[in-house]
Amino acid sequence: MKHGLIVLAHGNIPDLVDVLAQFGPDCVAYVHLDRKVHVSGEDIRLLKEQPNVRFVSRRYAVNWGGLNIVKAILLLVREAVKDTEIGYLHMITGTDRIIVMPSMFKAFFARNAGTEYLLHFPLPTPYWPNGGLDRLARFDPIDLFDVRSARGKRSRNFMLHVQQRLGLERSIPADFPPLYGGSMSWSLTRELLLHVLTEVDRKPAFLRRFAFTYCPDEIALQTLIMNSPFAARVENNNLRYIDWTRKKNPQPYVLDLDNWDAMIGSGMLFARKIDRPFS
After folding, report:
1. Which of 6, 163, 150, 3 shows the shortest CA–CA distance to 86?
2. Rg of the Cα trace of the chain?
3. Model pTM?
4. Which pairing describes strands 180-189 and 270-272: parallel, antiparallel, or unpaired?
5. How far is residue 144's CA from residue 167's CA, in Å, rounded to a whole number?
6. Which region, left, alpha or beta, applies to residue 146 given φ > 0 means left and ψ of -120 to 50 means alpha?
7. How many Å apart are CA 26 and CA 250, to the nearest integer?
C-alpha cells in the first residue's frame, strides 16, 4: 500500500525537501506552495526533482484562516486520488515531521487498514470561544487580508466590529448537515476522500458558504466526513503530537529539545511544529 502526502507549504524549500525525504520513497507527495511567497526557480526545480514528488501547484494565494486553504487541499486531493495504489492520504505542512521509523509508519496503517484518523467534535464546542458557531456568523474578511500583518489584522478587526455594532449576522442554510469542527491535520483513506470530492462537486453551495468564515479548514471537511457513511470508521485522533498549551494564540507551540521525551513517548506518528532554526 502506498501513502500520499497532501502538503501545504509556505516557502523554505530545502527544509520541505528534508521533510519529504524522511517519509521514505513509498510516500508520494502532492505539494501546494502559497502563491504569495517568493520562491526561486532553482528551489522549484529542486522540489520537482525529488523522486517522491508527483505534483506541485501554486494556484492559490493562501491567507491564514481563509477558504483558499480548503481549496488548495482539495486541489491536491483530486490529483492524489488518481493513483489507485494509494491507500491513505496524510495532510501535513512544511513544519510537520514523521517521528517513527518509516517501516513503523507503514506497519501501523497496514494493521489498522480502513480506520480513518480525524480529530473532531460537534459544534458548538467548549474547545472554541463562543462554541465556535460565531466563526460562521459574520462576513469575515480573512480571505482578503493577511491577518499576520498588523495592517491586515486592524482592517479585519474593524470590519468585524462594524458588523457587530450594526447587528449583522449570517444564517446557516436550513439544508446544512450538523456542524463539526476539528483539526486540519488528518490521515484518511483514498476511499473516504473520493466520497468527499463527490459531495463537494454535488453540492457546490456547501463550500461556497464557507467563504468569508474563520478557519473553514477546521469545519468544512470535518462536517462532510462526520455526516458521511464513513463516520463509524473515524477514530477521534489525528496521530499528531502538537503542543497548544504554551501560547495564547491560534498557533501551536514550536517544538524544541525540551519536548523530545513527550513527543517520542506520545505514541503519535507525526509532530508539529518543528521549524528551523528554533527547533
Report:
1. 3
2. 19
3. 0.92
4. unpaired
5. 22
6. beta
7. 33
